[in-house]
Design goal:
This protein is 28% helix and 27% strand. By secondary structure, the protein is an alpha+beta fold.
């Protein structure tokens, strides 16, 4: 599920791109989140905050921030990592639900260094979402980069945050954990055999391929050329449409791509099923405290013919009270289910066991 690539010296810009690979449509829309919005941790409410920075985020089901950038040029991306283990929820620790994990960083920090300092100081615990229908529990890791080109990869292994902070950490995919990905790339680079560039859709192969093509880039002639070059790199790491592999949502087709200029504050989005590129220029947005939360309806308005295209900065619409209540109810449901994760897990196991037992009972 996904590839993220950071290009910190793109002709005067810092440019980042990512693919979203998943086995189903996430009904992604873009949301404009102004400064001053009040939020809680989605895991019990012990941590509350008021957004210091405005942001634009790409969501899953209008509930979960999966990708985005704030007005300081901090960009963040949530990707799948099967090895993620966050530990049992601990009420004595600072906690963040997966639903708001990325949003907190975009709300509160302008640089990677600030985000790293807070993460290491608080040892924040990420609380998993839980799907009571028995589908997979999300296993996620987080990449952040800022307008200076600094980068960090945050992974949770055995309940502990592993913070990989280095401006040289420019590519992230999925399994295995990051230190193993870096070791494999260094081994390939030292071998000096580009003819052996791996071509499969495995996360480890996408990591090497994206790293290789990033190193081959020439200085772009313009900001537009830099973004086009980034699109070319992440498209090369994209996954084709195909039947998903059972139990592996990360081994799925690419459903959309994002490229962001963190210097000029432009955020571009492309769907693979309705491939018109749209972009948002932050200079044209009102992110001031007190301005409304607004949504760009990609699900309803992005179309191959006659739909949105180009600059859509003025196409956001205010979210009405009814939709706000629906989103708030959805977030409350996610928080409740996360808090009752173990109880739901036991219930699902009991139902599955009973179903299997019934299927083995011969008809009378």
């Amino acid at each position: 599920m996904c590839t993220r690539v950071l290009w910190p010296d793109a002709g005067g810009s810092v440019v980042v791109g990512r693919n979203m690979d998943f086995h189903m449509d996430l009904l992604t829309n873009l949301w404009k989140m102004p400064r001053g919005v009040n939020r809680s941790d989605g895991a019990g409410g012990e941590l509350t905050w008021s957004a210091k920075y405005g942001s634009v985020v790409a969501t899953a089901f209008d509930l979960i921030a999966t990708d985005g950038m704030n007005e300081a040029g901090l960009a963040g991306h949530v990707l799948w990592l099967t090895e993620s283990e966050y530990g049992s929820p601990d009420s004595s620790r600072v906690r963040l639900s997966q639903a708001v994990w990325l949003q907190y960083y975009l709300d509160m920090f302008g640089t990677v260094a600030e985000a790293v300092d807070w993460t290491e100081r608080t040892q924040v615990q990420v609380v998993e979402l839980f799907d009571p229908t028995g589908h997979l529990v999300p296993k996620l890791h987080l990449a952040l980069s800022d307008a200076s080109g600094d980068s960090v990869i945050i992974e949770y292994i055995d309940g502990v945050a592993r913070v990989h902070h280095d401006a040289g950490y420019r590519v992230m995919t999925n399994s295995p954990p990051y230190e193993q990905q870096i070791a494999a790339w260094r081994e390939f680079a030292e071998a000096g055999t580009p003819s052996a560039l791996p071509g499969s859709t495995l996360a480890s192969d996408r990591f090497i391929r994206a790293s290789y093509y990033l190193e081959q880039q020439r200085t772009p002639e313009s900001a537009a050329t830099a973004m086009a070059a980034m699109f070319s790199i992440i498209r090369n790491a994209a996954q084709p449409f195909r039947a998903p592999e059972p139990g592996k949502p990360e081994a799925s087709q690419t459903i959309w791509q994002v490229v962001a200029d963190q210097t000029r504050l432009r955020y571009a989005f492309e769907s693979t099923t309705r491939p018109n590129i749209v972009w948002v220029d932050f200079v044209e947005l009102d992110l001031s405290s007190g301005s409304p939360v607004m949504k760009l309806d990609l699900v309803g308005r992005l179309a191959l013919e006659g739909g949105l295209s180009g600059n859509v900065s003025y196409q956001f619409t205010e979210v009405d009270e009814a939709e706000t209540r629906v989103v708030e109810a959805g977030m409350q449901a996610l928080e409740f289910v996360a808090q009752k994760r173990d109880e739901f897990a036991r219930l699902v196991a009991m139902v599955n066991q009973a179903t299997r037992g019934a299927s083995r009972t011969p008809p009378r």
